Amino acid sequence: MPRTHIPTTQQCDTCHGTLAWKPARIDHSGFISGCAACHNNGGAVGLSPGHMLTRRDCATCHSFPDWSLIRFRHTSAAYPGAHRAALSCTSCHTSNTDQVPYPSAANAGTCAGCHAKDFKPAAHPKTVKGLTYTATELANCSGACHVYSDTTQSTITKSLPGPHHRVSDATFHR
């Protein structure tokens, strides 16, 4: 075996054919270590040159045998509506890493982390005298359910119909 060969105690014909060494056939079903233990561009092909930098195991987003198909989905209620679909990774992960550079870093991990620029203060009255909710106050898009008589927020003047922006609502409105 060459020195860059994946460490193994198996016989050559377990992976290699008798007429040619390449391509090798490897049964991944019995492996217990993470993909990167072998797929490190030394023992076996690892991350492609254009792949985002990550320390996560390959199986977090990819699966055998078609590694090119990305199967990761955000299933949490924190990702409402179309955010649960198979989005392009680079639509959020724009820094070439598995981290997200939030446009509104103060609201990272919430709807406002990405959508603060879309926030329409006039549509979110806090008091009858014109004070509005801020994007940070409504960062989780739970909605401005109450309009108060003044800034003490002790008397509700009006309750708004909901749940317009509940992340648990399958028909999440933007």
Q: Helix amount, in percent?
A: under 10%
Strand order of the largest sheet: 1-2
Mean pLDDT: 76
Q: Roughly how many Å is the radius of gyration?
A: 25 Å
Distance between the termini: 58 Å
Report what the structure shows.
- The protein has 174 residues and is low in regular secondary structure.
- 3% of the residues lie in helices and 4% in strands.
- The chain contains 1 helix and 2 strands, in the order αββ.
- It has one helix at residues 111-115, and strands spanning 146-148, 156-159.
- A two-stranded antiparallel sheet has the order 1-2.
- The N and C termini lie far apart (58 Å).
- The mean pLDDT is 76.
How would you describe this structure in keywords?
174 residues; little secondary structure; two-stranded antiparallel ribbon
Q: What is this structure's SSE topology?
A:
Blueprint lengths: L110 H5 L30 E3 L7 E4 L15
Antiparallel strand pairs: 1-2
Please sum up the structure shown:
The chain is largely without helices or strands and 174 residues long.
